[in-house]
């Protein structure tokens, strides 16, 4: 079901058809790794305006044999809570080749269930390598203490597996 949702979001992304021929001639990239994301203030039962920060590390498969891995920094903000998320996120990826990509994620589905985030976001590479390409990033980031949703400080950190798919 997640794969079908991912495919639907990727194909529903703005301008996807305009980039289809470009995607067919350029290398697609698929990466697996993990993300750690912090929230300030922490996620609580009610959604509130938060800042997002974090990092990611990925191992990648590509038709470009030189591109094998990447690390990223994550920033953004919006309305977030333990049961709701509506935010814009920027991911700045540095590839093992030294090249960089900046991705802005606007379209997404982030289901927050007691601090456990089931993430399916779709964005566009806006700068650097793969500029103009669609990027999807599904994952599952969790907190070790979901009861913190009801605490004054809330859930300040989630971490877990994530992927990057660039088409």
What does this structure look like?
There is one protein chain. By secondary structure, the chain is mostly beta strands. 10% of the residues lie in helices and 61% in strands. The chain has two helices and eight strands. It has helices at residues 2-12, 20-25; strands spanning 29-43, 48-62, 69-81, 84-95, 100-113, 116-128, 134-141, 155-166. It has an eight-stranded antiparallel β-barrel with strand order 1-2-3-4-5-6-7-8. Strand 6 (116-128) and strand 7 form a beta hairpin. It is elongated, with a radius of gyration of 16 Å. Mean pLDDT is 79; it is low at 1-25.
Task: Write a concise synopsis of the structure shown.
It is built from 2 helices and 8 strands. By secondary structure, the chain is mostly beta strands.
Shape: elongated
- The separation of the N and C termini measures 20 Å
E-strand count? 8
Q: Taking Cα atoms only, what radius of gyration do you get, to the nearest Å?
A: 16 Å
Write the element-wise H/E pattern from the N-terminal end onward: HHEEEEEEEE
Let me know the average pLDDT.
79
Low-confidence stretches: 1-25
SSE-based structural type: mainly beta
Strand arrangement within the widest β-sheet reads 1-2-3-4-5-6-7-8
Largest sheet: 8 strands, antiparallel, barrel
How much of the sequence is in beta strands? over 45%
Q: Helicity level, as a percent range?
A: 10-25%
Structure annotation, total helices: 2
Provide the descriptors you would attach to this structure in a database record:
eight-stranded antiparallel β-barrel; disordered N terminus; mainly beta; 61% strand; 8 strands; 167 residues
